[in-house]
Amino acid sequence: DEVKAILQNVELVSTTADSWTSHRRSFLGCTVHWIDPNTLERKAATLACRELMEKQTGRLLARNLTDIFAEFSLLDKITHCTTDNGRNYVAAFEHFAADSTTRL
């Protein structure tokens, strides 16, 4: 809740996302990065580290990222999202591109 409160006062953010598998379990991690409007210092916070119960498809990643970004009211604030160039992430962001209401 502290991160949500801080991010309410931030106009623009960037994010990072990564997914991985360990011992047959898949995970998605997501962080947010912004400039503190009062101090102009770079800030970052972890938004989520979730276990993925399904195969890491582009559709699954897009759905999970949308849920995470919506939970923190970031859908209209994200300028960039850094990921690797795996096919699943390329497909995930094609879903965002197809949705003209999402700024990503």
Automatic annotation (TrEMBL):
Q: What PANTHER family does this protein map onto?
A: HAT C-TERMINAL DIMERISATION DOMAIN-CONTAINING PROTEIN, TRANSPOSASE-RELATED
User: Which source organism does the UniProt entry give?
Assistant: Caligus rogercresseyi (Sea louse)
Q: Which domain of life is it from?
A: Eukaryota
Q: What is this protein called?
A: Transposase
